Amino acid sequence: MRKDYHDSKSHYKMYKAGKNWLFAGIGVITLVSTIAMTTPNAHAAELNNDTNLSSTQKDEQKVTSATPAQQAAIDDAQKDIDQDNADITQNQKNTADEQANHDTLTDQTAGKQSDVDQAQADADKANDQVDKDKSAVDDAVPTDYQDKEDAEQQAQNNTDKAQDAVNQATTDKNQAQKDVANASDKADQAKTAKDDAAKNKADAQDQADAAKNKVDNTNKTTKVHHDATPVKPGTYDKGNVIGLPDTLLDPKDGHTNDYGYYDSSWYIYDSKNDKSQKININNLTQDQINELGQYALGLINSLREQYGLSPMIMSDNTQKIAAGDIAIRNKNGITDEHSLIGNNISQSDWNKYTFDSIAENHTGTFYAAQNMGFFFGNEDTMLAAKVSVLKILTAMAFDDVIQENGHRHSMLMNPDGIEESSDYYNDGDVTYYLGYGVQTSSGTNIFDFWRENNAAIWNDGTNDVPTNSDGHSSFASELMKHQKNGYTNNGTDTIETNPAYTNAVNDYNQALAQLTSANKAYNQANDAYNNATNNLNDAKTNLANATTKLETAKSNLNDAKTKLADAKQALADVTAQYADQLAAYNQAKATLKNDQALVTMIQILTTVKIHQTPTIILIATITLMMLFLVNLIQRIQITQSISQKILKIIMLKIQQ
Most buried in the list 333, 416, 580, 581, measured by CB within 10 Å? Predict the structure, then answer.
């Protein structure tokens, strides 16, 4: 709200020129005025007396003359003075205009004060009329009518709320039914998925059980046969790493007259993969001697086979005879020499320790020959001992020229002792035997050979040796009992992991992985089914609650409708009872409402500022009248507070 124009105001202005406020300009004006008055006279004196001035006078004349800087300051000061004069003139004009306007407003205010007083009187009068209208309404109101009317309105409101509750409950129930249907579908799907997962789990369990059964019934290891690799002798200077051959082969390296053939190196022993039996070469058991003898038998017979000769026979009894020979040698202290009947052993000792130990009648069987070879003394496994036997027999067979090949002749049993002749006798009636023993005290390998002679060629054409039905003498038959096979390298059998077992284990592990996956899938499906079932149960519970709520809402609606009907009837009854009085009551209320609106308008108009134009007041009055007209036509109940708010908004908009 602007301050009343009866209040006086004083206006002052302070001007600025350059960098100096005008308050400091008086001294400048005085200085400039003084300079302006003295300068022309000095200039005239200078013109008239220029030629007569002394040097001292000329210096004084320079002091009184204005320099360019001083002249510029004088010019700036003059400009400031001119500007100040102009501002003072404008300020005086503005002051005069404001004073004139102030006088005009004062006159207008004085002229309209009577209008304000009149408006205030109208407002007081209108307020008095409203008070009278209120008394009229109070006097006209029928007894109990207002209560019945309020009760009817409250009943209507309650009925509307009850209807809204029914509508909402119906919507909730419909939604709950949809939720149940959706939850039921999901539960059915989850049930199907769970059943499928259960079947997959059962199938995976069956497969795992079958795979486990296969593992349990499959051997972890199996015997794997490795075929023999033919091994040939190396050179005399560098032997081959051997895998124990079963054939005597000629090295064919030119070493056939070496006196020290026992040191030959055509074969070497490799301990890296030796898994054979540990032995004490100086204390061999008979079983170990027999095993070495069987290896020697195989080698000797391979040599005989190369010459087309029949194999020699080794049996338990031939081994027993060889053991007897070792006993005679130990008895007689024989180590480096052959056992020779009639030389270093007697016939009686021979018979006692050898033939007689088998049978008393040994007619037809004769001691034929003996070969000897020596261990190196460092053989500590059965494989190492067999390699030594291999070396000894290879030297006897192919490096024995210095001994006139006598060792090979013994193994071949050449009757004429002629090497490479056609006189090798291989008659079917002649059988050759081999007995192998080890004299451990000297490390000597003893190879004893015998023959059975049933042919006339051995007895000057006569055959007077009694034979059995098999064509052999009784003693020969004894030597043939419990024959031993010679060593044959048929390869090796190793115990290895069974591939079938490995495959079965892999299949079982894979089945277990599938079972684990199936169990996981089933657990997930079961959880999903449980969740779906819980959701379905919740949805059914919600539906039941919604149904109950709907029934309750319907019951409440029926009660509300009943109460509304009762309230309407009570209002109708009181209306009929007070028909005449109601007309006057309604008319009094209408009059009160209109007069209250008029009071509101008068109050607003009274607050309008005096300087507002009559046009604005007219617009506000017309607007209020239109509101009254609409109210009367449409019977819209507009309270006094609403009217006040509307009119205030209108006036505020007008004032903006």
Answer: 581
Q: What is the pLDDT averaged over residues 616-641?
A: 56
Tokens, residue 55: 């040097």
Terminal-to-terminal C-alpha distance of the chain: 13
Share of the chain above pLDDT 70, in %: 70
- CA-based nearest residue to 486, from 221, 158, 248: 248
pLDDT in tens, 54-103: 444 444 444 445 688 778 888 888 888 888 888 888 988 888 887 888 77
Phi–psi pair at 452, nearest 5 degrees: -105, 125
φ, ψ at 382 (rounded to 5°): -65, -35
Based on its alpha-carbon atoms, the radius of gyration of the chain, rounded to whole angstroms, reads 75
Q: Supply 458's token pair.
A: 């051995």
More confident call, 580 vs 275? 275
The CB density around residue 633, as the number of other CB atoms within 10 Å, is 8
- How far apart, in whole angstroms, are the C-alpha atoms of residue 625 and residue 602? 12
Which range (16-30, 203-217, 346-360, 531-545) has the least confidence? 16-30
Question: Is 266:233 a contact under the CB 8 Å cutoff?
Answer: yes
pLDDT bracket for residue 626 (50, 70, 90): low
Q: What residues pair up with 315 in beta bridges, in sequence order?
A: 483
Residues 6+ apart with CB under 8 A from 543: 173, 176, 177, 179, 180
Amino acid letter, 267:
Y
Q: Compute the residue count for the chain.
A: 656
User: 446, exposed or middle or buried, with CB in 10 Å at 0-12, 13-18, 19+?
Assistant: buried
Strand 221-226, strand 492-497: pairing = antiparallel
Token representation of residue 175: 């939604």
Distance CA 252, CA 235 (A): 9
Lowest mean pLDDT among 200-204, 266-270, 401-405: 401-405
Span 495-521, pLDDT tens digits? 889 899 899 999 999 999 999 999 999
Inter-helix orientation angle 26-48/68-140, to 10°: 160
- Tokens 């002249």 -> residue: 71
- pLDDT at position 423 is 40
Round to whole Å and give the CA distance between 262 and 423. Answer: 29
Query: What are the phi and psi torsion angles at 464 (to 5°)?
Result: -105, 15
Burial group, residue 21, by CB count within 10 angstroms (0-12, 13-18, 19+): exposed
In three-state secondary structure terms, 230 is: coil
* DSSP helix/strand/coil, 619: helix
